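Per your request, structure below.
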């Protein structure tokens, strides 16, 4: 079973990779580094939080199933 720190670490590392991709897509479409960076930073924060609660919900579901 994963602990909270492991869940958070997985969320952070995944979001870094995914946000780099987001930045590159926005930059390639708009040519605007600032816009790409701003959206990527917002993306990181929102999706780390969403992923964390998603993992916590699955842990609750697993506990109830046992």
């Amino acid at each position: 079973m994963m602990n909270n720190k492991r869940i958070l670490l997985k969320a952070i590392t995944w979001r870094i990779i995914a946000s780099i991709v987001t930045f590159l897509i926005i930059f390639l479409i708009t040519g605007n580094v600032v816009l790409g960076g701003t959206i990527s930073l917002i993306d990181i924060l929102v999706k780390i939080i969403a992923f964390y609660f998603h993992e916590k919900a699955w842990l609750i579901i697993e506990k109830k199933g046992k």
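The mean pLDDT is 89.

Regards,
D.
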